[in-house]
Design brief:
Blueprint: E1 14-25, E2 28-35, E3 50-55, E4 62-67, E5 78-83, H1 89-97, E6 103-106, E7 122-127, H2 131-144, E8 149-155, H3 164-173, E9 178-184, H4 185-188, H5 193-200, E10 207-211, H6 214-228, E11 234-237, E12 261-266, E13 269-274, H7 281-287, E14 305-310, E15 313-315, H8 323-327, E16 330-332, E17 336-338, E18 345-347
Parallel strand pairs: 7-8, 7-10, 8-9, 10-11, 12-18
Antiparallel strand pairs: 1-2, 1-6, 2-5, 3-4, 3-6, 12-13, 14-16, 14-18, 15-17
Length: 350
Amino acid sequence: MNELVEKVAGPTYYWLTVKAVRDETPAAKSFVLVPERREEALFRYRPGQFLTFRIPHENGQIMRSYSLSSAACNEPHMTICVKRVDEGRGSNWLNDHVTAGTRIEATQPAGRFVLSDGDAPLLLIAGGSGITPCISLIKQALIESDRNVKLVYANKNEASVIYRETLDGLANRFADQFTYQRWHDDARGFLTAEDIGAEAVGWEAADIYICGPEPLMDMAENTLAAQLGQEKTILTERFVSPDDEAANPAPVAGFAASPCSFRLTLDGEDYEVPYRPEQTLLEAATTAGIDVPSSCTEGHCGTCMAWLRSGEVSMASTKALSKRNIERGLVLACQSRPATDAPIWLDFDF
């Protein structure tokens, strides 16, 4: 077991300057972001990752996570795309108030929705603003590898297609490598399970990435898991804001006796983590000095997802987990507390 050093828990925020703002659709804007020069190394990122922002609000600061649409292989600055949504406190503030020169606080890049190693083809299913992390993956894969890539991109109509010119340009430049299926609901109706299944034919060996509205993600994930096998790796990226209404399972009732420690596996190393009553597993790990993957700490970005190999936990929120994630034993460390005194083993290397 590794030696642990106690430290203060919680994410660190850094100042970013907005270099430019671009209109992508009538309801979505891109924001080009630049860190302080002395902190540039902290913001090296992998395609598909996101930043969590601390946004001012009349009731106090709120945290929101937005995916990077840029790819470091051919773009000098980080870019996010934010779509306006009804009653969206973070997205609408960014669209209404942020201009070139605005400074805003954000965490370092984080997230598991990243390119896998190897040369497997990629099948990506996106809806609406879910194109944001997907286009980052697509650009990196096409420019830096020979991997074949297929994108199925659903929108309400032609006017709501984000990054249309970029996608068209990639389709022309990489015609032998990139298959691009644009789907407009007003012309063809909503994507169905049958449509998703048909698009996957011939792409059974592909690594699969899904991002978009929750109903689309759930339908696509369940369809492809049934068609390609439950053990098929399917990565989803879901951001559900804390103020969004969503039904969550009731937390498991707490147990009178909490364990004094739990086992944690990260990057091939095992740790015995001291635990204090009322801490989340993430708080305990961070306090012990373990640099576990985390970002928003509020249960809506999914960065701290881990496999609960043994024991039982109560989760305050499961919003960032799909039903399939939960069935596979995945938990959010930032939302999890021991529910019994049974030994807990939390594995981030799943």
